[in-house]
Design goal:
The chain has 261 residues and is of the alpha/beta class. Helix content is 36%, strand content 22%. The protein folds into two domains: 2-99 and 228-260, Leucine Dehydrogenase, chain A, domain 1 (Rossmann fold); 103-224, NAD(P)-binding Rossmann-like Domain (Rossmann fold). The structure holds 2'-monophosphoadenosine-5'-diphosphate. 2'-monophosphoadenosine-5'-diphosphate binds next to helix 5.
Length: 261
């Protein structure tokens, strides 16, 4: 039987097994999807063992190994090279890595129909933030600003973009159309939250609980929940592994939502 898994340091909390095993059953695919929770000091040993297992056909990579995985692969595609992170690997004669986070995030905001001159603020500058920034720029969004507690640089070939400091965020918050939190907490204080108008769309990439501490701070705004990105990034992974686009049906949605209340 073909084996798939998600590897990360908190992989046991991931909803990826639920999503993929649901599709395997729905499409009568003889495969199983599990999680591999591994600490940094045993990642090397564990990933080598899993990659060389003849049953392994593919896997997902999550925090904090999306960059670390690259050296174990034979090739990665252009988008993952540009982002510097891989979240989906196909294992065959060669091990090939791709990044579907950027694409998944773009699809999660599709229904909001934001035009390209809208102002977008990203809080945090980790792996997920970089993928989202990359996707938004690739799609043609002009006004994307990244804030982080420590100064970081994002390669935006041929230029480099430096993150801004939170103490300079007030004016940006007043006019933001979309505010995306990619940190595990709420990095804004109460004064800053009050600057955000009702029309700003609020987005968090953490998917459990559905209403994160950050999202809970906004009761009048339109929201994009982290679970949408998780599902949207899983679709192209499945498509890479099996060659067709899986359907997200209502039973699946119900199963997922019952886990993130
Ligand atoms: P991911 O791959 O999911 O993006 P990550 O790479 O660990 O995860 O990134 C987490 C982001 O949250 C980083 O931008 C981090 O800020 P630093 O670059 O300064 O470390 C941010 N973050 C984490 N804890 C935070 C906190 N308590 N306050 C503000 N930002 C925080």
């Amino acid at each position: 039987m073909k084996e798939f898994f998600v590897i990360g340091n908190k992989a046991s909390n991931s909803l990826s097994p639920l999503i993929f095993n649901y599709w395997f059953k729905k499409y009568k695919i003889k495969a199983k999807y599990s999680f591999v929770e591994v600490k940094s000091n045993s990642f090397n040993k564990e990933i080598k063992k899993k990659i060389n297992n003849k049953n392994t056909a593919g896997f997902n990579v999550t925090i904090p190994y999306k960059t670390k995985i690259i050296k174990y692969l034979d090739s990665i595609n252009r988008h993952s090279k540009n982002i510097g992170a891989v979240n989906c690997v196909t294992v065959g004669k060669k091990k090939k890595g791709i990044n579907t986070d950027w694409f998944g995030y773009l699809n999660s905001i599709k229904s909001k129909k934001l035009n390209k001159n809208k102002k977008i603020i990203i809080l945090g500058c980790g792996g997920a933030s970089r993928a989202i920034f990359y996707g938004l720029k690739l799609k043609g969004y002009q006004k994307v600003y990244v804030f982080n507690r420590t100064k970081k640089a994002i390669k935006t070939s041929p230029r480099i973009l430096y993150t801004k400091e939170y103490r300079l965020i007030d004016d940006y918050l007043l006019t933001a159309d979309l505010l995306i939190n990619t940190t595990p907490i709420n990095p804004l204080n109460n004064k800053q939250i009050k600057l955000i108008g009702k029309k700003t769309i609020i987005s968090d990439i953490v998917y459990t609980p559905k209403e994160t501490v950050f999202l809970k701070s906004f009761d009048k705004n339109n929201k994009i929940y982290g679970i949408t990105m998780l599902i949207e990034q899983a679709i192209p992974c499945f498509q890479h592994w099996f060659g067709f686009k899986p359907i997200v049906d209502n039973i699946m949605i119900k199963k997922i939502y019952s886990k993130i209340l």
